[in-house]
Design brief:
36% of the residues lie in helices and 19% in strands. The chain is of the alpha/beta class and 143 residues long.
């Protein structure tokens, strides 16, 4: 099984920005952790990050016929990117949206996800473990 993990804006600044919200784990630590956990589950993962909406769309489209599943943390694009929603729908790959923080406990504008309806599910508030939960779920969902 192959899963592409796509991280959106500012995720590369984990461990630097808003530690009270996102914790001390750096982006490099996150990637190392995910490769280790994926290996334990016999899942081949690719991890990408961009602060640019068009790059994220290109990553989604590039996954077409190459990956069995997508885990996406669209970050701020969650709340307004119809283009990312459209890309997820277009490729017809099972996707799970992940957020490190619980978006439903934050500002009102963060409680709405326009991208989640293009996904089979959403995991939020579980910290970086949410990505592992998403890998476990995709392994069961994708046949």
């Amino acid at each position: 099984m192959k899963i592409l993990i796509i991280n959106g804006p500012n995720i590369n600044f984990l461990g630097i920005r808003e530690k009270e919200v996102y914790g001390e784990t750096t982006y490099e630590d996150l990637c190392t952790y995910l490769y280790t956990e994926a290996d334990k589950m016999d899942i081949d993962i690719g991890i990408v990050q961009s602060n640019i909406e068009g790059d994220i769309i290109n990553y989604i489209q590039g996954a077409y016929q190459k990956y069995d599943g997508i885990i996406i943390n669209p970050a701020a694009y969650t709340h307004y990117s119809i283009a990312i929603y459209d890309a997820l729908k277009a490729v017809n790959i099972k996707a799970i949206e992940v957020h490190i923080s619980n978006i439903h406990q934050r500002e009102d504008y963060r409680k709405i996800s326009v991208t989640a309806p293009a996904c089979v599910g959403q995991i939020c508030g579980m910290g970086i473990y949410g990505y592992v939960l998403a890998m476990m779920a995709l392994k069961r969902i994708v046949k």
